[in-house]
Amino acid sequence: MAPPDTTRTPLSAASMAGGAGARPPSVRGVEGTPGDLGPPLGEAPLPAGILRQLDKGFIYLDRVLARCVSSELNPMLHTGAIAVTSLFIATVTGIALLIWYKPSVHLAYESLEAMSRSPLGSGLVRSLHRYSSDAAVLFGLIHAFRVFFERRFDGARWLAWVTGAIMMGLLWFIGWTGYWLVWDLRAQSVAVGSAKMLDVLPVFTDPLSRSFVTDGSVNSLLFFVVFFIHMIIPLAMGIVMWLHITRLARARYLTSKAMTIWVSALMLLICIAYPATNEAPAQMTAIAERYTMDWWYLFPMPLIDRLSAGALWGLLIVGSGISLAIPWLLAGKRKQPASVVASRCNECKKCYTDCPYEAIEMIPRTDGNDRLLTQASVIDSKCVACGICAGSCDTAGIGLDWFSSIEQRRLLESWLKRAERDGETVHVAFVCAESAGANLEIDPNTGLCAELPGYRALRIPCSGWVQPLMIERVIRQGASGVLVVSCPPDRCGYREGAEWERERIEGLREPRLRADKLEPGQVRLVALDRTRKADLIRAAARFRNGEEPLRAPSPSRAIHAVSATVLLIACAGILGLVSDLGYTAPAVHGSEFVVSLKHPGVASENCRDLTPEELASTPVHMRKERICERHRPPVRLRVTIDGATALEASIAPSGIWEDGNSVAVERVPVALGEHRVSVAIGETMDPDEWSFDDEKTLTFTDKNRRVVVFDRVGGFSWH
Description:
Elements: E1 7-8, H1 48-66, H2 79-97, H3 108-116, H4 122-149, H5 158-180, H6 185-198, H7 220-245, H8 257-273, E2 290-293, H9 295-298, H10 301-306, H11 309-329, E3 339-340, H12 350-354, E4 360-364, E5 374-378, H13 388-392, E6 398-399, H14 405-421, E7 427-432, E8 455-460, H15 468-476, E9 482-486, H16 497-505, E10 523-527, H17 533-544, H18 557-578, E11 581-584, E12 591-599, E13 604-609, H19 612-616, E14 626-631, E15 635-641, E16 644-651, E17 662-670, E18 673-682, E19 692-700, E20 705-711, E21 715-718
Parallel strand pairs: 7-8, 7-9, 9-10, 12-20
Antiparallel strand pairs: 1-10, 2-11, 3-6, 4-5, 12-17, 13-14, 15-16, 15-18, 18-19, 20-21
């Protein structure tokens, strides 16, 4: 059985239910070609065609959900707001956790263990903090993929995409540092992985890895710095979030009351089903092989454990660069923004109010009209060329030059006059280029469409472009009826165009369609997503034949409640499962011997007298008859196991002038069992001179490493 039509009659208060679809990508118009909105969606060039095919998955999912749950409780329609609400919960609970958490490398783990012993108190707050952070990532990713597949990132919308990508990066980094603060096996892996990447940068004097070879070497100050970063970054996110929506009118920061209750129930359910727990406490000499981890935040661990630091930085830089450059890498041909004819602007401010992107401002008059004070003006950098402002202006004082309202009126008039001469009764269809009519084959010169017999069809950028006065004029000039085809209102490609047009037709918004100028049933609004072409053809035929629109059955409250509960359980399951999946690190056969070294080679000076020519070329105040250059040789390291040399290394001095300490962390695989280990260190140029040496018999056990730390103050320290 075919799905029912989703249509509206004028001034009807019936619900606009039916085909649920995701917001389609932006219309790719051709500059300077009136009426040409680019190729049909089915013929879109790569990569736009690929993205539109991927977007169908979201459209079909929306359609399924629309049959059983109201738009207000459909999480797929509020992903951005849910992500922000979840982040807000994470921030509030994070502040509350400061009551119990101790930001010390020696006390952090015990304070978290104490929380776990209070599952309905501090443990619940901790679980809320964890899973609200996970939910922010989940719904943030869904929101990003929807925007990407729908191509809502190019043109004036580049700022929203770039700031959104930055927010996702900051959100991940907050979670990454947050897991460091638990100081369990997961935290140990996070800390060691972070040190691995930072050690290749000229940031720290000593390799950060030296801080994580033994429990005693962990720097308490570094731990507190990580804690401070974890606390301060959310402030930066607030600034980026403001930039993210600064070009949107009537932006919704948080979820509605009903959806907030749903999100809160989701958080409580997952906290009860999967209370947050710790792994074993961090032990630097332990080789962590298997543990569970939160893949929402710790997904880089498989790469960190298997790739070099250089390769990791390469992936990070290239991946970040591509993500941020998508608005330009995949940009289509940008359409000309709207423009204003000052002499036609009557200062009504309807376009200023209706613009979804705050691309219109009111400025002092530029046409010398003394009776009016202000006029509309378009901010080109914000305009997405949707044409909604044109539908707000009956005087045609604002609109799209490449799709002029006046020119389209004349075109419609010519079609209707020709039909009248031919004795043909026709309907007019205004077809949104992102709706179910996206793939209709419409002749732009005659308006004829074989799939819509009896119609003259005009493909428009957005249903919000249609002026109520234009509908009235078309009917006065002989059209039997007017069909307006739009996207579903809560999935409009330009945010509010479909909703504004619905309210204008129903007489709820200025400029409104005047019911007294029309016969009953002469105007109908059809809201169908772009995958429902067949349903549109049926709905158009019913309208042409004077039949009432088919109404989609509205699910009962009980079905809504059950469906919302099922969605709640499904989301909780996804969040809980991914947040506690197992991970296996690369296998380490046997054990490992680690040498952490920090020692300067013996300094030597190479002195010589300056020649008369060198003295003469040197400024008077800098002249010296003798100069000496200080030099430190590399420190030599040799590790012998059971009498056999296992490692020989020459460690260059640090510093710009190569006169600092030689610093290194060296690792040697060792078979399990008892071994005689000898470490020798040479600080001079003589290859046969070993200034320091020590020897011990060590027992190497599975999944544990043995460590020796050497510096010139403490000498050898075995662990």
